Amino acid sequence: xxKLPKIALPVVFTIIVLIILISKSAITIGSGEAGVLYRTFxxxxxTDEPPLNEGFHFVAPWNKVFIYEVRQQEVFEKMxxxxxxxxxxQLDASAWFQPDYAELGKLHQEKSEQYRERILLPxxxxxxxxxxxxxxxxxxxxxxxxxxxxxxxxxxxxxxxxQYIQLNEILIRDVxxxxxxxxxxxxxxxxxxxxxxxxxxxxxxxxxxxKVRIEAQGKxxxxxxxxxxxxxxxxxxxxxxxxxKLSQSPNSxxxxxxxxxxxxxxxxxxx
Length: 271
What we know:
alpha+beta; Tetrahydropterin Synthase, Chain A; 4 domains; three-stranded antiparallel β-sheet; 7 helices
C-alpha cells in the first residue's frame, strides 16, 4: 500500500506531459482560414507544400502554425494627393483583396503577417498619387471619378500581382476638394447648365417659328392654287347650289332670281 503513491506519481506526471504535448500539437483552423507550417528543426517556413486547410490538425509541438484569413477582406485608406495643377485632394478609397492561397507560405516568408501594411496600402497610395496627378480638380469632381477608380485598380494590381496578393477591386468612396475650388467648380457647372438651357430654348423657338412659317407657306400656296383654278362659271355654279340648299330650309325667305351680284339669286329672309 505504501508503494502505490510512488508508482502513481510518475504515471500522473506522464499523463500531464502527454496532455500538454497533445494540446500544443492540436491545431484547429477555422472557416475561411489557412495555416502556414513552420518546422523549427528543418527548413523553417514550408513553401513547397499546400497550406493547412480548415479543420483539425496534429503538428509536432516544436513546430508552429501561422494562421491567415484567406477570404476576401476590405481595407480602407484616406489619402491626400495632388491634382495635375498641384491642388490638395483628399481621396477616400477601399480595396477588396485576399492573399494568394497557393503561395501563402511565400507570402508569410517574404512579406509576413503585416503584408497589408507593408505591401498593399503603400501600393494603393502610390497608384492613387500617380493617377490623380493626371487630372484637374474639375475632372475629379465631375466626370472622371469612375475613370480614376479603374486606373488606380489597374496600377495597384500591377504592383501587387507578384507579391502573392490577389487584388479584387478598388472603390473610390469620396473625393474631397478644397472648399473654394469646389464652390468655383459648382458655379461654373451651374453657368454651363444655364447656358445649355438657354440654347435649348433658342433652338426650340427657332424650330417652332420654322413650323409656323412652313404652315403659313403651305396655306398661301393652297390658296394661290385654289384661286388660280376658280373661274366665274364655277363660282356661279357653286352659288346656285348654295342657293338651292338654302331655299330648301324651313326658314321663311324670298328668293329673287338674278338679282344678286354677278347675276346670282338674292335671298331675303324674314330678318
